[in-house]
Give the backbone structure.
Amino acid sequence: MMMMMVMMMMMMMLMMMVMMMMMMMMMMMMMMMMMMMMMMMMMMMMMMMMMMMMLMLMMMMMMMMMMMMMMMMMMMMMMMMMMMMMMMMMMI
């Protein structure tokens, strides 16, 4: 009887150990998954930020180009006007 009791105790201890190990493994797996998810989220956020920055830069460049073009056009118009005035003066 005593032997039986000891055996039962030993078995119980073993089972407990196995259960604990399983629980630990599960916890570790869960932690790893969480970490991976977090990393993925961070990466996505970074990518989005980069894209936004690129877009902003592009927009700025476009605006600058447009401004330059407008300036050039204005200059050309002014030159043309000057020329016309000169011509008129000459004619007179």
User: Anything to note?
Assistant: The helical segments are 2-91. The chain has a mean pLDDT of 92. Residues 23 and 29 are 10 Å apart (CA to CA). The chain has one helix and no strands.
